[in-house]
Amino acid sequence: MRQRRLGGGDIVVSEFGLGTQRWGSADFNAPDEAMCHKFMDYAVLEKGVSMVDTAEQYPIPSDRGKPEGDTERIIGSWMKKDKSRREKLVIATKITGSSNVTKKNIRKDLEGSLTRLGTDYVDVYTLHWPARYTPQSNWGQSLMYHVEQEQAPWYKNAASFEEIAEAMGEMIAEGKLRGWGMCNDNAYGLTASCYAARAVGAPPPCVLQNDFSMINRRVEENGVTEASSPVHENVGFMAYNVLAGGVLTGKYLDVAAAVDNPQDPELAEKLLRDPRGRMDDYSWGKTLYRYRSGPAEVATRQYAALAEEAGMSLTEMSLRWCRQRAGVTTTLLGHTSMAQLEETLKYFDASVPKLPQDLMWAIDRVHMQNRLPIFSSDRVGADWEGSGEIGERIP
Description:
Mean pLDDT: 92
Distance between the termini: 51 Å
Low-confidence stretches: none
Helix content: 25-40%
Strand content: 5-15%
Oligomer: single chain
Shape: globular
Radius of gyration: 20 Å
CATH topology of the largest domain: TIM Barrel
CATH superfamily of the largest domain: NADP-dependent oxidoreductase domain
Number of domains: 2
Number of helices: 14
CATH class of the largest domain: Alpha Beta
């Protein structure tokens, strides 16, 4: 497993990282604690994976019996079996975003994560989403920035970039974390955070984590990859949702997701009873519609044809493509079975070559025809009640 430096600091991570959002969750096919430990045994002890990404809010979804924070506890219980395991890991965890982010809460929530993990430091601490108002376009509901939202009650007193950087700097000075960063943010958030850190004398952020895949390449075009480049701010990039919620495995192409099958209620009911993945779960299916929009399906079919022509699965092409993007430091992915994890790690073995340049160009040609498929739809006017799919409510 190749290792890469995360930005300009001294943190080195494996180019594949374990995603843990649903570890121990109340979800229909989530891995339980025993399976999560098997994942770590195989990935960390056998295959050299060092990166594990989690959050205080995980697992998602949670319930009374499987509360938020339990994923950190599961990771901690694995490390507790052998004290030498801690040094094999680079642990990234997150503070819940928005108004929760204050200097006081950064300290309090980090202490909570340390307790659940059973360690005295984390390697990387990030904001799960920004403290400030910013269009949360990773979900697709914001078409543009609305300046009046800056004065909304829940954003009006948001922590400043300087307050956040100062708090992170103090935690680093105390040895409770090694580096910090942001998730679900943009080029402005990245550069402003770096500037604020320099202004208050704190170490600059070392990472930004965003949604990235062959059907969501926004970060390469919206300034994030440029801003994070070693030439500029030198911030590492963690890619998540690289298989677009399972869509880029191709398994939803022949039979649409349950929530998209109103014309065939019998099939929809069968899929709900025996789901192939999150897209067949009604709640996830609505939430993650963006990956199944009409334009996203068109692009996925084109990519599937390229993969078949190249003699590989769409899953393999999607993961190997992400692995070799210049702006990506590490690729995060969650799994529900050992077979899935074993397949993924085959494509991140150091012996696996880069995809041929002709194939990379062919992928680019598909992208140029359909540049932002996950935020395009034939049915617009979305809201949180499911009356639409993508975009703000439009009369």
